[in-house]
Amino acid sequence: MLYTLLRLIYKIGLQVFFRKFEVRNRHLIPKQGPLLVVSNHPNTFMDPIVTASLLEQPVFFIAKSTVFGGKVQNWMLRKMHLIPINRREDNPDQAISNDEAFAASFEALKQKKTILIFPEGNSFNQRRLRKLKTGTARIALGVEAENMHTLGLKILPVGLNYAAPTRFRSNVFVNIGEPINVADYAVLFQEHAQDAVLALTNEMKEQMEKLIIHTPTDEEDELAKQVEELYKAQIAATAPATAPPHEHDFILTKAIVKSINYFSQAAPARVAALKQNINVYMLQLKRLRLQDAILGKGHDAIIRHSVINLLYLVLGFPVYVFGLLHNYLPYIIPSKVARAATKEEEWYAPIMLTTGIFTFPLFYALEVWLVAKFLAPGAPWLLLYLLSLPLSGFFTLAYWNGVLQTQEHWLLLRLFFKRQDIVNDLREQRKAIIAELEQARQEYLQKN
After folding, report:
1. Cβ distance 434 to 285 under 8 Å?
2. Which helix (H) or strand (E) holds 36?
3. Backbone phi and psi for residue 2, each to the nearest 5 degrees, phi listed first
4. Which residues contact 172 (CB under 8 A, 6 or more apart)?
5. What is the signed CA dihedral for 289, 292, 294, 297, rounded to 10 degrees?
């Protein structure tokens, strides 16, 4: 009952928290167990919420034993379908035994239930898959062996790709992979159990790396993000025509990362020079408080957009004030709570989501009660007022983004009229960088 209630609340919360929640290959998700779901782990508690929301059946979670404590806490966590597992890094001085966790997992899978595991073991806010632990494979192969390899257990690989893991109203792209049939490893497991464990772990790794943006190092990831900002719009038309629009961004980013990895090995000096040029260009933009997307527009387009945005800001100002007055406190409290609770950015999003699930309904209920008590409108007007609260909140966010964009337009226009030489120099730098990227893309396509 507790799990069902929380699942419903969080599913609604996810639709509010993320601007876009997109899923690729949803049809590959089995509708019943026995099933092991394995996923990368970039965003702490947000990851199980996002992943479990996609499955129709109840999901059990493998969680580190340190989240368990007193009797009441343990009872509550078990009602939420958490199974504790001991990790060596949590108790380095103690002998580690996970017999109970394995037994609980075996029993759940024998009952054809679904378990979610993050085989990396820890959560890291990075666009890469870290080394997988072998526990998942040992559970899968062990329970199949206990059932004479007839259980029908499958492993479903999932890739979580967050555009901005810690930001409200950002995007998330969930990539579902082909289920792995554990029984395919039965013969190898009977002959060489450890080899089977390693082989199955390696297949999970290979599948999961295909489902996410995987950058080998922080340096390559930073360069990939810069190239995305500068060049992705230029190559948008090259995305496969057969791919749905919501997959284009992932496909293009994946191609950028793959090409950077290729040139890092084939022509490291060339990559280093490109990185230096991009860093110089980006640093100048930062000092001038400009974005590349603005600089890429023509002079006439900037003036036209500035006029349109200004008109939008003037006409929308009353709605903005209404939305700000009614939504500022429930919006800002989750952010303040997250930053007060932890310094680890990986925890910001789930804390904000959980806090917001309470703050927004409470404040909306209070505001509706105050209006009903002191203004006493009719029921239709009161319902209309209630609907206006979240709608005006979304408008306020969009309006503020419009303010920032208009500010950038005016900064560039002022710079253009006062220091046209700086603008021209920046545009020449941008043109040269894009030309180099285009040349590299053509060379890469010819050789691959």
Report:
1. no
2. strand 35-39
3. -65, -45
4. 18, 20, 21, 22, 50, 160, 161, 162, 163
5. 150
| Reduced 3-state DSSP string for 125-186 | CCCCCCCCCCHHHHHHHHHHHHCCCCCCCEEEEEEEEECCCCCCCCEEEEEECCCEEHHHHH
pLDDT digits (tens, 9 = 90+) for 33-71: 899 999 999 998 899 999 999 999 999 887 665 555 566
pLDDT in tens, 342-353: 888 888 898 999
Q: Is 399 helix (H, G, I), strand (E, B) or coil?
A: helix
Per the prediction, the chain carries an average pLDDT of: 89
> Quick check: 200 and 180 in contact, CB under 8 A?
yes
pLDDT band at 431 (very low <50, low <70, confident <90, very high): very high
- 192, amino acid identity: H
> How do the domains of the chain map onto residue ranges?
2-214, 219-288+432-447, 295-426
Q: What is the pLDDT of residues 347-371, one digit of tens each?
A: 889 899 999 999 999 999 999 999 9
pTM, full prediction: 0.87
Pairing of strands 114-117, 35-39: parallel
CA distance linking residue 34 with residue 200, whole number of Å: 17
Task: Please report, rounded to a whole number, the percentage of residues in the chain having pLDDT higher than 90.
Answer: 63
The whole-angstrom separation of Cα 200 and Cα 104 is 21
Kindly tell me the burial class for residue 203, based on how many C-beta atoms sit within 10 Å of its own C-beta (0-12, 13-18, 19 or more): middle
Question: H or E segment at 24?
Answer: strand 20-24
Rg (CA), the chain: 26
Judging by beta carbons within 10 Å of its beta carbon (0-12, 13-18, 19+), is residue 428 exposed, middle or buried?
Answer: exposed
**What's the CATH class of domain 2-214?**
alpha beta
Side chain identity at residue 226, one-letter code: Q
CA distance 247 to 387: 32
pLDDT in tens, 286-328: 988 888 888 877 777 888 888 898 899 999 999 999 999 999 9
Confidence of residue 96 (pLDDT cuts 50, 70, 90): very low
